[in-house]
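Quick one, C-alpha cells below. Sequence please?
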C-alpha cells in the first residue's frame, strides 16, 4: 500500500490502479473490523492506519513541491530542461532529447557503449519494443560499465505520434543511516533484508550478493522476495526506483540534514535519558515556534520556508524524533511517546 502511494506520485498514470488497491484495502479493513461500524456522524469510525496517514500527508507535500498546478511541459521539454540525468531515445537509438548532465556524461558516445553487456542487451530489447503500448513493458534497471551507477529505462508515450520512446533517468542516491531508519520504519525490513536492498541499489545481482555476504543464493532470493512483498513493489526495477525516490525525498542533497541551510545544531540530553538533536533557524530574539518534521524529509523542507520565516521574525526550533538524525533511538518506550515527552521538556 505504501509503495502504491508513492508510485501514484511518481507516475500519475497509475492513479487509477492505486484507487483500486485503496478500495480493496478499505473493504478488507471493514470486513476484519471487530464489530459492525456505525459511521453516522463519525468521520473516523473506520480508523485509518496512522502510518498510512503520515505517508498520505508526505505524498501531498511532494505533489505540492512538484507544482502539478503549473502548465505541463512536453516530455521533450521536461527532459531537455532537467537539472538531473535524463535521456529520451526513439527508434534506432535516435536522441529525441537529453539534459545537459546526460549530454556531458555521454560525451557524444552512444548510450549502449557506456553500459555493461547485460545492460546493453536489455536496452536493445527495450528499443525493439517501441511500437508497443507503454504499459506492456516493465521498466528495467541498466548498469553502467565500470561504475556503480544505475539507469532506469522505461517506455513512455510519444506525444503527437504513434508508438513510444524510451525514457532513461539516473538513479542517483545517497545511502545513509537516516535512509536505513526510514526504510526500516516504513516497511518493517529486517537487517538482512535491508542489506539486500543496499546491495541491489549498488548494482549487484542476487548471485553477487550471495557471494559477498557468504549466504546461499536461495536465502538471498527469499529475502529479496520478502522485500518485494513488504514494499509492494512488483519487481526489482520498481523496488530500486521506489527506494531511490524515497531516499532522495528524505535527503535531497547528499549533505547531512541541515548542513546546507545554515541551521544551528545542538545535542540535548533529555529527561528520558536519550540524546535529542535540535536545529534552530532565525533571529535569536525572534518569536519561538516549533517545527516537527515528517517521516521522510526531515528538516530539508525548511529550505523552502527560510525566507518567509525570517521575514516574519520567527525563531524556528526543530527537534528531531528519536531514531532520526543524531537523536538516539528509544528501545522500550514507543517513539511518539518519547518524542512527546521531549517536546514538553523542550517547551518548558
Amino acid at each position: 500500500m505504501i509503495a502504491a502511494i508513492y508510485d501514484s506520485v511518481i507516475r500519475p498514470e497509475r492513479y487509477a490502479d492505486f484507487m483500486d488497491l485503496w478500495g480493496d484495502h478499505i473493504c478488507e479493513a471493514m470486513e476484519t473490523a471487530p464489530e459492525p461500524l456505525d459511521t453516522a456522524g463519525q468521520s473516523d469510525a473506520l480508523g485509518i492506519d496512522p502510518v498510512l496517514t503520515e505517508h498520505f500527508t508526505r505524498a501531498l507535500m511532494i505533489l505540492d513541491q512538484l507544482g502539478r498546478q503549473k502548465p505541463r511541459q512536453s516530455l521533450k521539454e521536461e527532459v531537455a530542461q532537467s537539472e538531473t540525468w535524463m535521456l529520451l531515445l526513439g527508434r534506432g537509438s535516435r536522441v529525441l532529447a537529453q539534459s545537459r548532465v546526460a549530454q556531458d556524461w555521454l560525451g557524444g558516445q552512444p548510450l549502449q557503449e557506456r553500459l555493461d553487456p547485460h545492460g546493453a542487451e536489455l536496452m536493445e530489447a527495450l528499443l525493439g519494443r517501441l511500437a508497443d503500448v507503454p504499459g506492456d513493458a516493465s521498466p528495467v534497471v541498466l548498469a553502467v560499465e565500470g561504475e556503480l551507477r544505475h539507469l532506469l529505462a522505461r517506455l513512455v508515450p510519444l506525444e503527437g505520434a504513434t508508438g513510444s520512446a524510451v525514457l532513461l533517468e539516473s538513479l542517483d542516491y545517497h545511502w545513509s543511516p537516516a535512509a536505513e531508519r526510514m526504510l526500516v520504519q516504513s516497511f518493517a525490513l529486517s537487517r538482512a533484508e535491508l542489506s539486500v536492498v543496499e546491495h541491489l541499489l549498488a548494482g549487484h545481482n542476487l548471485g553477487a550478493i550471495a557471494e559477498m555476504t557468504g549466504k546461499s543464493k536461495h536465502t538471498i532470493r527469499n529475502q529479496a522476495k520478502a522485500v518485494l512483498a513488504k514494499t509492494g513493489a512488483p519487481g526489482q526495477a520498481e523496488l530500486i526506483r521506489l527506494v531511490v525516490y524515497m531516499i532522495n525525498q528524505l535527503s535531497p542533497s547528499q549533505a547531512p540534514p541541515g548542513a546546507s541551510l545554515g541551521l544551528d545544531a545542538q545535542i540535548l540530553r533529555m529527561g528520558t535519558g536519550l540524546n535529542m538533536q535540535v536545529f534552530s533557524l532565525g533571529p535569536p530574539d525572534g518569536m519561538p515556534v516549533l517545527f516537527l518534521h515528517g517521516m521522510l524529509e526531515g528538516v530539508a523542507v525548511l529550505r523552502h520556508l527560510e525566507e518567509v520565516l525570517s521575514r516574519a521574525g520567527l525563531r524556528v526550533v526543530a527537534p528531531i524524533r528519536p531514531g532520526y538524525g543524531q537523536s538516539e533511538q528509544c528501545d522500550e518506550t514507543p517513539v511518539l511517546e518519547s518524542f512527546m515527552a521531549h517536546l514538553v521538556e523542550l517547551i518548558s
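Residues 268 and 276 are 5 Å apart (CA to CA). The domain at 75-170 is CATH 3.30.450.20 (Beta-Lactamase).
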